[in-house]
Amino acid sequence: MSEQNAIGFLQQVASRADLLPALMTLDKDDVLALAARSGFTFTEDEFDASVWDLEGRLAARRQEAFDGTFPLWETMWGKYYLEYLVTDLVPALAETGLIEPWRG
Fold it and tell me: What is the pLDDT of residue 49?
């Protein structure tokens, strides 16, 4: 359930153009609190584990190494971490079928 909540929250942020700019500079604790208030409850550890697991599964699906050379991480340069998750990771997960498209 925690993985679904974490990804659901990221998908919700991706679906609303006003949310990402407002959230990407907040502290992680503030973002987690907002997620909980929006009905997406998960801890920081659950979030980190979910994202790490999904990135690893994405690399395997794409037959890419999941190490310091993981190509998707190159898209993170010059972005906030939340921005990378919403604009790069979530679409890549949906494209490969690792997560269901957002139906918000």
Answer: 94
Cα angle 16, 90, 63; round to 5:
165
If one counts every other C-beta atom within 10 angstroms of the C-beta of residue 92, the result is: 19
Looking at residue 76, its pLDDT comes to 85
Apex 103 CA angle, 49 and 78, nearest 5: 50
Per-domain boundaries in the chain: 2-95
**Residue 17 burial class via C-beta count within 10 angstroms: exposed 0-12, middle 13-18, buried 19 and up:** exposed
Distance between CA 45 and CA 43 in Å, rounded? 5
Residue 77 confidence (pLDDT): 87
Q: Residues of the chain whose pLDDT is less than 50?
A: none
Tell me the pTM: 0.86
